[in-house]
Amino acid sequence: MTADSSPDSTPAPGIPAGVPATSRVEMLPTAAGSSHALLLVPRTGDESPDAAEVLHRWVAETPVSRPRHRIELPILLRLYNVDLVWSPSRSAAFASEERCASIREALTDFTNLEAELTAIEDGITAAWPAYEADLPYAYGFSDASFSVRDTLLARYGTVKSLQGRLARLTKQITQPAPQPPTLAGQIGERLRERLRVEERDEAADGELEVLSDHYDACGQRASDFMIARRENMLSWTIIVLLATETLLFAIDLLSNAGT
Amino acid sequence: MPPWQIGIIGGGPGGLLTARMLEHQAAVPPSITIFEASDRLGGKVLTQRFETLPVAYEVGAAEFYDYAEIDEDPLKQLVEDLGLPIQVLGGSSLIHGDRLVGNLDDVRETLGSEAAAALVDFHHLGRDRLSPREFYDALPVPQLDGPVGSSFETLLAAIPSPATRRHIERFIHSDLATEPTHTSRRYGLENYLMNDPAYMQLYCIAGGNEQLIAAIASRLAARIRLQTPVLSVGSVADGRLAIDVAAGSGRQQHLFDAVVLALPIEPLRQLQFGGERLQAAMQQHIAHHDHPAHYLRVSILFDKAFWRGHWDDAYCMLEGFDGCCLYDESARDPAEEHGVLGWLIGGESAIAWSQRSDEAVIQTALDALPAWLREPAQRHRLEARVHRWIGAVSALPGGWQPLPLDRRHQPEPTDHATLFTVGDYLFDSTLNGVHDSAEYVADWLASLMLERPGSTV
Lengths: 259, 457
Hints:
Number of strands of chain A: 5
Strand content of chain A: 5-15%
Number of helices of chain A: 5
CATH class of the largest domain in chain B: Alpha Beta
CATH architecture of the largest domain in chain B: 3-Layer(bba) Sandwich
Strand order of the largest sheet of chain B: 8-7-17-18-19-16-20
Oligomer: heterodimer
CATH topology of the largest domain in chain B: FAD/NAD(P)-binding domain
Number of helices of chain B: 16
């Protein structure tokens, strides 16, 4: 995911009060048009008991929801020696300095993965009204339908593009976590579980299959129509040519008979 | 035609599974009698409740192995078919001192970079030598199935980092239930690799594993005779098999077309066998399979699961007792409000501590907890129990060659061709192993019943 991402130019939000001065906010490399701020709070061993609550509040300041899946955000994870709060636009971690690189890596990968999945889901949601409107073209195509040919082609392209993006994402989602387990692998695994990523991936795949089948059928009807139309024109051309030939032949016969 | 009369000695999972499979597979269901010496069914599958509060905990078999990722898993299929709720058990940590070491980053921080690198190397070596498919199929692997003396210790000795070696030993000690010198390279490696989800996952039955026993027993047509110790087994003149059971101060004889000995090694040793040939065959069978491994279980009820939030896995490993497994028993039932911790102590430590008083064992178990659990454990403790399982499973020593499957299940094929043995010790000392064993014998008996329908009894 990081290969397709670029460093974000959005200014980093400020460090909240109530966390150690050694804390820092970093902007994760995300896809263009989005940003993700990570607050890293090095564990010192004498944190105040409500430190986790401070992190939670800071992450929840920029509300992003996933109402379609009824997932309550932010997600709070407590892993071995690491406390983590995650939302699509912000996350915060309580961990020793040595863990920060692993956490950053895991969160960058997961945030980009989840954002891409959400974008694909949004694309699918946007495609459904057009699917309903285009249903008749999967059954038959006529001269009256000719004008929507380019629109159908564009929608077919959109669906196929979404399918391609999802296929690349599925490869990442189903990749087994490294063994022996690493912190980055465990964070990714837990976040995928909590955000129901596998379930969403399967659902998106099913929906895209329906859309793709539909536009495949529309394409087939349009193609059949164009072939039939071309054959029709060809037939009439032949008829006209034959008629012309017959007429010329008749004229020739009559003129010879006169002489 | 009268149905076959089959006697099954032992009302544990082996006996019950054999009876269930026979009733399902035979063209004409046989008439089965199960003899159980104790007052309960289930053997090593035992779920009990505390006296203070009726909270369940596992006394015996702690978990089932889920091989569904690799191929068919008939035991999991059975659990699902019986409608029993499955609870996945997860955990990957070992507590070093007071620190929870749950991943490679923790190992690097706690034991050092060299130890972490050695752990990765050992893991890769394990995966290279035994693939998930070889693990599932129990296929022979020449590099692992070495000659006598090729114990798991020889694999561990090759690890360059002593800290990693200790980490691995502690991590798998309670699963092995024996010491690395007493078990094969393969069995040791299997017990290490089973922590990798590519090989298997662990699960239990929410609310108690013993529900499996109750569910099977309630669906059996077999006659079940509890508190009926079998004294001897032998053949009578016409080839039928006789089982003598204790009846009052005397004994009572029952005749069968076939008998299944579904007993662990120790009770099998206590049985008398009629005839020199059978006696010799059974002695040989017992000697070949007698490699005892040991467990000790400590279960403590607390007024609440005070560890949640600090430790949320279903189990982890402790350094105490040379490595023991600590289960969050209350994680087995999501509806449980109270907390139960269970210590599974294995190997030489189990033998040594089994000689001590319950209170001494309980106190040592509590002392084995990290400081952040030890103090609240004393404060929230309500009741504690100790259960001893000495010699309950098989250690599978290095160089030990398993017998061919027919010979494993039919100790004396000449004069006692319808006397069979079923047990976890014939496979890998697991519930999945006893299922395989029961299936093998049930298939065999079903085909014999097809060849020769009708009882001779």
